[in-house]
UniProtKB/TrEMBL annotation:
Belongs to the glycosyl hydrolase 29 family. Residues 537-705 form the F5/8 type C domain. Keywords: Glycosidase, Hydrolase, Signal. Its EC number is 3.2.1.51. This is alpha-L-fucosidase. GO terms for cellular component: lysosome. InterPro entries: FA58C (IPR000421), Galactose-bd-like_sf (IPR008979), GH (IPR017853), GH29D-like_dom (IPR059177), Glyco_hydro_29 (IPR000933), Glyco_hydro_29_N (IPR057739). GO terms for biological process: fucose metabolic process; glycoside catabolic process.
Length: 705
């Protein structure tokens, strides 16, 4: 009897151990294989190039003549190579933007590349991109705008059929594709075959997205679908290139109106920034941002190309928060990525390589407070420093706040920590803290909330230590952590900040003291022979200021740049619609403070147009105006349709410019309005014809160049 009891006991123990050694149960919504492939891609570029490149617009109206599209040296190979030099793994080609011009010889519309002079009407830009990606080992995706301001059928069921045929052509002829990209911009004014009218659609139902997405699933089953509502990858809710500090890969999209079905362009997009903890769908975020201020190339924005360290910062705030970085490239009229852009991309790519070349935690001894079933061979912490993204350290079901000690065996200096979960089992961990053993005691050096497919903790200063500790402080279930790494980002100085007050006084500052700040006013890059900044200086007539920080003879920061219009010291309000409150007074429109706004918003209906006219104090030569929308991430009162007037007596006005501020809601940067020819005037009037939302207008700043 005792022998039988002993055997039974052994069998029971073995059974329990066997049960405890099984993998943790998946938690919540889970990724598909396509989504896993997308997560591993990490970074890609979206390329905006077409007729808008030649009209100097962000959104074409749809009436552009295909004959203007005739690049002198288009090179898909050069464009894709520029992206690859930046460390990007794929490109998304804007095959058709809102203007409706198709970059491939489609059978669905005459408004396509075959009607252009490019290669005598025999060109096919999509084919050239496909060949370039194949040659360089890069992934290819496509974006075909759902909105078409050229097509006379837009707004009818017939157009939806045309749109779906365009997708079929792209999917059939240019695969394999890794992503099918869908914009939320749809419905509004356009050319529409000469009708020149506003066409509204039901954004919730018009495109029949379930049916449209079915085309992708059938013809490109490995491609993920991107859009405001995914269904595979969601928009992060801004065009600034960053996800939330907490960013969940799961998401439940909501329509703005109760009871409606959310759709692209019809969703509470701000919820996409953080996602939804325990959301209904696995739908991680994509962070889209342009390398330049705008999405298409504009000569006036050559000085606004993002620097390598700005791109690195965006990398930490996108890829480093479990999202992907989708960087906009804008080939110039020649049909290639401008040399300025290539330089920044290449230096950024080199920075990434330098930073993540070596995991300083390799070779460390890792000791966990708990290992699932005691089975270190299957679930031990050693898997955190291998090269497999899905091997992992797991704990017993009841152990949700374990600790891990990392003995580096020798002091290591680092400033970046990387964590990853095995997302095949869902996004599980909700909070972590990292400590370093310094001067005989543990000191916290970093913390994070969501982890998911990738989490980078960028430390504010270098840390040198030989022993570290990772503490999981919050998780609803057993953990499945797959990666732990520490890295050293190269030392660099931060670029100076340049500002100007209403009196025209320019100030330049740095976050920390440096040996010298040097600047230029002629557009050239600052060098060690440039003037040293010592105190604010007047820049009454405006111009371009560039500055760079220097430390000793060997270290220098990237240069920063600011473009200023005329000084506003003498400006006065001539006339304006009444401000809503004292804090919204008209003078705020030219106080050189981007945080203050001129505000006429009211609760009741407001009549348009609304206007503000300004006396500049003296006659000025005017080449361009600038409108900066409110910078507080609110849409009410942002002007998207405008007219500018000038006058020499403040009574008789001449219209000098009118148009729309395309994409201003998603990309609320200063909107330049370049005049066809230079004029001289003392007074100008800004008139708002329409706003994105709200009853009234808001203006952060008006400028004259």
């Amino acid at each position: 009897m005792k022998k039988f009891t002993g055997i039974a006991s052994l069998l029971l123990t073995a059974g329990l151990n066997g049960f405890s050694q099984t993998a943790p149960k998946p938690y919540g919504a889970l990724p598909t294989q396509g989504q896993l492939n997308w997560q591993e891609t990490g970074m890609y570029c979206i390329i905006h190039y077409g007729v808008d490149t030649y009209t100097d617009k962000e959104w074409g109206f749809g009436d552009e003549d295909p004959k203007i599209f005739n690049p002198s040296q288009f090179s898909a190979l050069q464009i894709v190579a520029a992206a690859k030099a930046g460390g990007f793994k794929g490109v998304v080609v804007v095959a058709k933007h809102h203007d409706g011009f198709c970059l491939w010889p489609t059978k669905t519309t005459e408004h396509n590349i075959s009607k252009s002079p490019y290669k005598n009407g025999k060109g096919d830009i999509l084919k050239e991109y496909r060949e370039a990606c194949d040659k360089l080992g890069m992934k290819l995706g496509v974006y075909c705008s759902p909105w078409d301001r050229n097509n006379p059928n837009y707004g009818t069921e017939e157009y939806v059929k045309i749109y779906r045929e365009q997708l079929k052509e792209l999917y059939t002829n240019y695969g394999p594709l890794f992503i099918s990209w869908h914009d939320g911009a749809n419905g509004g004014d356009g050319y529409y075959g000469g009708k020149r009218e506003v066409r509204k659609i039901d954004r919730s139902t018009y495109y029949g997205w379930d049916t449209t997405w079915g085309i992708t699933r059938k013809l490109q089953p490995n491609a993920v679908l991107f859009g405001d509502v995914g269904p595979d990858v969601r928009w992060v809710g801004n065009e600034e290139g960053h996800a939330g500090e907490t960013c969940w890969a799961t998401y439940t999209p909501h329509a703005p109106d109760e009871g409606k079905i959310p759709a692209n362009g019809y969703v509470k997009d701000w919820e996409g920034t953080e996602g939804t903890r325990n959301g209904k769908y696995w739908m991680p975020a994509e962070c889209d941002v342009s390398l330049r201020p705008g999405w298409f190339y504009h000569k006036t924005q050559d000085e606004g190309v993002k620097s390598p360290y700005t791109l690195l910062d965006l990398y930490y705030k996108s890829v480093g928060r479990g999202a992907a970085l989708d960087l906009g490239l804008s080939p110039d009229p020649r049909g290639i990525v401008n040399e300025i852009d290539v330089k920044s991309l290449t230096e950024f790519g080199n920075l990434l390589k330098q930073t993540f070349a070596v995991n300083l935690a390799k070779g460390a001894t890792l000791t966990a407070s708990n290992v699932r079933g005691g089975n270190k061979a299957k679930f031990g912490p050693q898997f955190l420093v291998d090269d497999n993204r899905y091997s992992y350290w797991a704990t017993d079901d009841k152990v949700t706040t374990p600790e891990l000690t990392i003995d580096l065996h020798a002091p290591k200096t680092f400033n970046v920590i990387r964590l990853r979960e095995n997302i095949k089992l869902g996004q599980r961990i909700e909070a972590v803290e990292v400590d370093a053993y310094v001067s005989g005691k543990w000191e916290q050096i970093g913390a994070a909330t969501s982890i998911g497919g990738n989490r980078l903790i960028r430390l504010s200063q270098n840390v040198t230590a030989s022993k570290l500790r990772l503490r999981i402080t919050k998780s609803p279930v057993a953990i499945a952590l797959s990666d732990f790494g520490i890295y050293k980002e190269p030392v660099h100085l931060t670029a100076p900040k340049i500002s100007r007050d209403k009196n025209g006084e320019v100030s330049i500052s740095t976050e920390a003291p440096v040996s010298a700040i040097r600047y230029t006013l002629d557009g050239h890059e600052p060098t060690t022979s440039s003037p040293v900044y010592s105190k604010p200086f007047r820049l009454k007539e405006g111009g371009i200021v560039k500055a760079r920080a220097f430390e000793g003879k060997s270290q220098q920061s990237e240069s920063s740049y600011a473009s200023f219009g005329y000084s506003k010291a003498e400006w006065k309000v001539l006339d304006a619609n009444a401000a809503t409150e004292d804090w919204g007074k008209a003078e705020n429109a030219f106080d050189e403070n981007t945080r203050s706004i001129y505000n006429t918003l009211k609760k009741d209906d407001t009549q348009f147009p609304q206007q503000i006219s300004v006396d500049m104090g003296r006659e000025q030569k005017i080449k361009a105006f600038g409108y900066l929308p409110r910078q507080d991430k609110q849409a009410d009162g942002i002007v998207d349709s405008y007219t500018f007037y000038t006058s020499n007596d403040g009574k008789t006005w001449e219209k000098v410019a009118s148009g729309e501020f395309s994409n201003i809601k998603s990309n609320p940067i200063e909107q330049p309005v370049v005049l066809k020819q230079e004029i001289s005037a003392r007074y100008f009037k800004f008139e708002a014809q329409h706003v994105i939302a709200g009853n009234g207008i808001t203006v952060a700043e008006l400028s004259v160049y």
